[in-house]
Every structure is written in C-alpha cells, then in structure tokens.
C-alpha cells in the first residue's frame, strides 16, 4: 500500500447521491479563507516593499488575483469521497461560525495602548494605514533638531539611527491596515472576530477531512469555546491569521494528494509557507512539510514538487520581509531563530538524502521489531514525561538584554501579587502540559494521547496515510512547544503559543478517537443510537471542562473605551503640537500611538536615573527648541504631578476598564481592573 494512498475517514459519511454537491461546497468553503489571505498577502507584500502600500492600488490588484485563484483553485478542490458531507453538516458548521463571530463582535477588545503585543500590532497597522511604507520617520524638525536627551523609540518600535522599525512580522498589520484606512480604528479592531470566525470555519474543514464530515461542526464548536481561541479573536494577535493559513494549507494539501492535483498542492504549500510572514514561529511549524514534500517527490508523486515550490515561495516571502523590514525584531529573537535556521538546514539536507535513498531502495519496512505495537506506549511515555516535568525540573532564564530584565521584573511583581515565592528568573515552562489541561481539560488530553498512539500505529502500518502530514506537524510542534514555549509565562497570555497547532491538534486527535470508537461500537453489533451516544458522551467530556475554564471570561469585555479616549486626546493636543512625553510609563505606552493615530510628532525625554520622570532642565531646553521651531510643546505624563511644574495640568486620557487576569500556577479566572491616565500641560512660555 502506498504511504500516501487516500482512505475514507468515516463510513457514515456515505449517504445518498444528493449529498455530493454539499460535499463539494463544504470542501471549497473551508479552504476559501486561506486562499483569500494568500491572495492578499501576495499582493500587499510587494507594494509594502516598494513603499506604496495604500488601499486603492492594493484592492485594485487583489480583486483580479483573488478572482483568478478562487476560480481555478477552488475548481481543483474536491471532497475526499463521492458522497462526503451533507447540507446539515454545512448548516451546522456555518451556525457555529456565525455564532462565534457574533459573540466575539459583542465583546471585542479595544487594546490600543501599548502594554502587550495586540496594541503593538494595532499601532503598526495604523502607521501602515496612514503612510503605506516602512520605516517610521519620526521627523526631527518639529523638535528643533536632535538632542542627547530626546529619543523616539518605545517598546515594540525599535530606534535604529534616525528611524523606527516596528517589532513583529508585517503580515497581520498588512491584513488590517486597509480596513483602518477606509473605515477607521473600530473597524480594524472588529476585523479580528471576523478572522477568528474564519479560523473556526477552516478548522471545521480540516476536521471534516481528517475525522469525518459529520464531525466538522463538533470540531468547530470545541475550538470556538477554548478560551485562547476567544482571546486571540478579541484583540489583534498574529495567531488568528496563522491558524487560518495553517488549517487551510493542510486542507488544500490533503485534497491535492488525494486527487493527485498540482494546483491545490502549490496553493497549500504557499499558505503554509506564508505563516512565516504572519509569525516567525511558523518557520518551526512547517519543517515537517519539507520532509513530506520530499517523500512525495521520492514516491514520484507530481504533487511533491508543487507543494515544495509553494512552500519555498511562502517561506521566502516571509524571510525577505523579515530581513528587510523586521530585522531588529529578528535580531531580538536570534537566540531561538538561529538554532531553528540550523535545524531547517539539516532537515533540507536529510530530506534530500532520503529522497535519493527511497527512490533507489524504496521505503523501509517499519513493521520490523514490532514498532507499531510500541506506538501507544511511546506516545504515553512522552506525555507522561511532560506531566511529571514539574517534579523533575524548574526552568529559569538569566536576563541577557533589557527586555529580558523587564520580563524578570514583571514576573517578580506578579509573583508578589499572587503571593508566590520570589523567583524572577523562573519561566514556568515545566508546566506547559498543565497549561493545556487548564484550557481543554484532562479528559481531552487523555483522549488525544490515546488517539495519537493509535494513529501512530496505523501510520507505521501504512494505514490512515492521509494523516501523515498533519500528524507529523502536530507531533513536532506540540513536543517542541511544550518543551520550550518561549513566552512570558503568565496565563492566559502564554496560551497564544498553544492555539495555532497544539490545542487544535490535540482536539483533532481526541475527535478522531471518538469517531473510531463510534465506528467500532457499530461494528460490534450495537445500534446507531449507542454509537451516537458514545460520540456525544465523548464530546461532552471535552466540552464541559473547556466551558468551565472559559465561562469566567467569555462574557466580560476587556480594554473598553480606549479608542474614544485616544481620539479625545488627539483633539486636546491642539494645532501645531509637538508632544514631549516626560514620564517613562506614558512614553512606553503612547509615543507611537500619538505619532500614528493623532498624526502628531511625538518623542520621549529620557528619564533621570532612579526616577520615572525627565530632568527639568532637559524638559525646558527641548521645549524652548520646539518653540523656536515654530511649534507648541505639549508635555504628557501619567499624573498631574509629572506635568504641573511646567503649566496647568489637565487630564486628557482616562480609562477605567477590565483586562485579562494574569496567573502563573493555575488556570486563569475572570478579569482584573485596569486604569490608564494621561495628563497634559503646555509650558507657560509656549502660549
């Protein structure tokens, strides 16, 4: 049997001939979001590289490209079986997707003040919406020229020479920027629930292909109720678009290999490769795709070269953007990026050698030494290690740069507030499997472990070969992520590392086991009612713990009122303003927001050692230079005492809202209060 031979996923999907059109619609509907993102990124990146990324030219190019790709790409997508899927399945999947989108639109976050990544992405996208190019030029003339005490960088916006480079890859800001330019900040933020709903839809399509069409609504529902999925769909997180590309890319690849069609293989590889343009971690996730494409080439399947070509183009686009427009960010993450590049090179070399070996001698016999019989035990051993890891290891990291030191200070403050032992260098990575159980429950992890073990046995026996690529990708990313999450460890923040592959992958394993159990119940002679009851009970075992964790947060909006207050602050700055932020926290949070959203020159005056505010002589000197340049200096600080010595203090920004809670050793519950204030003063000599 061929290692990539197609195989039916669920015998119950074979109904009557009237369902075939529903199956075609379901197959095409669930890859359309990924194809649309591929088309947009393919158009947007060259425009951004050329410095002319504005909405009208981008849309003018996107429409014909999308029409062409959707016409021919979707035409090449066929369902896995002749009578796969039904209109009930389509309706159920669309109902889950629509309900998820509606709930998220009612509760989406207005996180635009830079405290963590979502606001950084917002300000990145806002700059692109207004200027269409990088880097960011802060303009020295409104400040009366350079000054040793004056700087323009802030967290997530690196100052290199006289310009600023945003942190992170440009994929997500490129997706959102045209919406912000055409419809404003609220519309940009509201796009995240829409993209999140498309991710849920795409995951439903992947579930249908790997588990069975009737399981698509259940898969979509389970993912939709996982709190990390809700979290990344309420604020601007790159993981949301990455999930669309990952699920859609895998679905396209599965369809291509089953039907032996090159075009969906090319598009699938392109979608998977472009995850790097959205998040640099995608470079790790797609390494198994390289090996899989090599296997197809070795077996002389024409989809192999197409898959590899699409992957190379997508990864290449991401790396070119990273090297030219996000290099300071790549330099910051070099500690994990450089080893990953070496691993990627090794994978390419090993794959090339394996292609030659397999072409000459064929595939090895993996049934020797009873390897399939050891599969379940091996999977349980790996999961048992991660479960016992807190008893075996405490992960710490000594700071090597100012950002690491800031993270250590944050962890120390959080430990103090949570009444935990003070250990600021602790990373809590040893609890990574516990993080998973907090969000989908222990039963789901146990079901997924059994499912992964049985699937591995089937793959070693060359059965269920449609699972080969998804299994390799899920297993590789899950193990590497659990070993080294590489993120500030407070929850639910750190759960974003799990949402692109780990949590969806474990849900797929668990659902496959439930489908397998339901089929075997029927084969044992029990009726469809017993089989259906088995499936329902299994789904509830996953659903209930998931909802218990999510319930305390799913109905509470966070980070509300920030857009309206930011617009009010912009109006308060007045004509010909040059903003000088003289207090550290306000400078960190608002420097780029004012520069991009208010379109007002803004800079920060360096604070005194051991203080949070700037020296008065620096403030006065730079303010006088601003006046001499024909501008109005406007001083900003976190409270009235910061700015009162220079003029009449007035509060121009005030938000009292809720934010996600922070937890280190337990599942997150509820939200915490958040208050942000900005006070303004115009120096008396500036008028």
Automatic annotation (TrEMBL):
The chain crosses the membrane at residues 25-49, 56-74, 86-106, 182-203, 215-233, 240-257, 263-282, 303-320, 340-362, 374-392, 436-456, 468-486, 498-518, 530-548. Keywords: Membrane, Transmembrane, Transmembrane helix. This is Glycosyltransferase RgtA/B/C/D-like domain-containing protein.
């Amino acid at each position: 049997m061929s290692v990539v031979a197609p195989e039916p996923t669920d015998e119950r999907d074979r109904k009557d001939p009237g369902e075939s059109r529903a199956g075609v619609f379901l197959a095409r509907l669930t890859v359309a979001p990924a194809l649309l993102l591929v088309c947009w990124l393919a158009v947007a990146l060259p425009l951004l590289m050329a410095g002319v990324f504005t909405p009208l030219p981008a849309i003018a190019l996107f429409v014909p490209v999308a029409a062409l790709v959707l016409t021919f790409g979707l035409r090449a997508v066929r369902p896995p079986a002749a009578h796969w899927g039904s209109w009930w399945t389509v309706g159920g999947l669309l109902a889950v997707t629509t309900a998820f989108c509606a709930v998220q639109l009612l509760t989406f976050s207005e996180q635009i003040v830079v405290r963590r990544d979502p606001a950084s992405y917002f300000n990145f996208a806002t700059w692109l919406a207004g200027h269409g190019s990088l880097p960011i030029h802060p303009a020295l003339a409104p400040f009366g020229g350079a000054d040793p005490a004056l700087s323009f960088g802030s967290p997530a916006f690196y100052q290199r020479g006289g310009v600023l480079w945003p942190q992170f890859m440009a994929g997500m800001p490129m997706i959102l920027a045209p919406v912000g330019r055409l419809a404003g900040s609220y519309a940009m933020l509201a796009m995240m629930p829409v993209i999140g709903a498309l991710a849920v839809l795409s995951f439903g399509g992947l579930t249908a292909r790997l588990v069975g069409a009737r399981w698509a609504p259940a898969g979509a529902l389970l993912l939709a109720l996982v709190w990390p999925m809700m979290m990344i769909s309420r604020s601007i997180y790159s993981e949301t678009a990455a999930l669309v590309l990952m699920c859609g890319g895998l679905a396209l690849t599965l369809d291509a290999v089953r039907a032996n069609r090159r075009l969906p293989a090319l598009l699938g590889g392109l979608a998977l490769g472009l995850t790097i343009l959205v998040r640099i971690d995608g470079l790790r996730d797609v390494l198994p795709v390289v090996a899989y494409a090599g296997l197809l080439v070795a077996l002389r399947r024409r989809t192999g070269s197409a898959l590899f070509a699409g992957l190379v183009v997508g990864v290449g686009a991401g790396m070119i953007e990273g090297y030219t427009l996000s290099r300071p960010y790549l330099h910051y993450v070099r500690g994990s990026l450089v080893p990953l590049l070496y691993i990627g090179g090794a994978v390419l070399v090993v794959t090339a050698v394996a292609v030659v070996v397999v072409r000459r001698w064929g595939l090895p016999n993996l049934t020797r030494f009873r390897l399939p019989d050891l599969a379940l035990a091996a999977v349980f051993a790996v999961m048992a290690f991660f479960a016992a890891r807190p008893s075996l290891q405490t992960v710490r990291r000594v700071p090597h740069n100012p950002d690491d030191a800031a993270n250590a200070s944050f962890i120390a403050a959080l430990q103090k507030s949570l009444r935990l032992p003070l250990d600021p260098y602790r990373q809590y990575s040893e609890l990574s499997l516990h993080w998973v159980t907090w969000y989908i429950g222990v039963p789901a992890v146990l079901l997924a472990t059994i499912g992964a073990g049985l699937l591995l046995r089937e793959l070693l026996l060359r059965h269920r070969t449609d699972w080969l690529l998804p299994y390799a990708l899920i297993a590789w990313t899950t193990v590497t992520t659990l070993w080294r999450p590489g993120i500030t460890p407070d929850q639910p923040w750190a759960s974003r590392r799990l949402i692109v592959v780990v949590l969806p992958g474990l849900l797929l394993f668990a659902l496959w086991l439930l489908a397998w159990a339901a089929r075997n119940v029927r084969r044992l002679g029990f009726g469809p009612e017993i089989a259906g009851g088995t499936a329902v009970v299994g789904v509830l075992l996953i659903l209930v713990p998931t909802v218990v964790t999510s319930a305390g947060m799913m109905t509470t909006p966070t980070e509300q009122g920030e857009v309206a207050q930011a617009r009010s602050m912009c109006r308060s700055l007045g004509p010909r303003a040059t903003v000088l932020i003289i207090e550290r926290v306000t400078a960190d949070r608002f420097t780029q927001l004012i520069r991009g959203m208010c379109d007002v020159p803004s800079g920060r005056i360096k604070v005194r050692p051991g203080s949070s505010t700037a020296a008065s002589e620096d403030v006065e000197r730079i303010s006088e230079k601003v006046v001499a340049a024909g501008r109005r200096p406007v001083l900003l600080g976190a409270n009235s005492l910061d700015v009162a010595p220079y003029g009449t203090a007035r509060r121009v920004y005030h938000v009292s809202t809720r934010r996600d809670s922070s937890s280190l050793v337990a599942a997150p519950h509820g939200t915490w209060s958040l208050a942000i204030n900005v006070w303004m003063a115009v120096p008396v000599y500036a008028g």
